[in-house]
Amino acid sequence: AGIGRVSKGLLLPxxxxxxxxxxxxxxxxxxxxEYIGELHAxxxxxxxxxxxxxxxxxxxxxxxxxxxxxxYLTDLDFVRFFNRVGKSLKPGGIVVIKExxxxxxxxxxxxxxxxxxxxxxxxxxxxxxxQLKVIKKCMEDKFPEDLFPVAMIALEIDESDE
Length: 162
Hints:
Low-confidence stretches: none
Strand content: 25-35%
Shape: globular
CATH topology of the largest domain: Rossmann fold
CATH architecture of the largest domain: 3-Layer(aba) Sandwich
Number of helices: 4
CATH superfamily of the largest domain: Vaccinia Virus protein VP39
Structural class: alpha/beta
């Protein structure tokens, strides 16, 4: 979740009445209500948890937005997390991923921050191991060329897996 930029700038203005912010840093999470602002801070639940330890309730969410955090998941944790997220979707629910992707290798490890940037094909191959299916994918076109490109992927439950 970070400090709640997506909740404040996108989800709450779009009319979502409740946002759950999941963030492993208690310090960052404690600052989120002030950042989100008095008008909407009470519309959010603040959950201090890593994605590896986050087990959302079934049939809970219309939308799950996951941005710039998958880089901290191992492949196994990634698949497990997205399977749990899939079970948390209400009928018609969507998962959105926004993530930097490397362009020429399967993945690149950054030892300084313990992150793992995956190529888009590699990321998609991991998603194929989940109960979700890609319904839309695109690349952000206005992003600095000296940084990894940003992929945006929308997913829904793959009914053919049931």
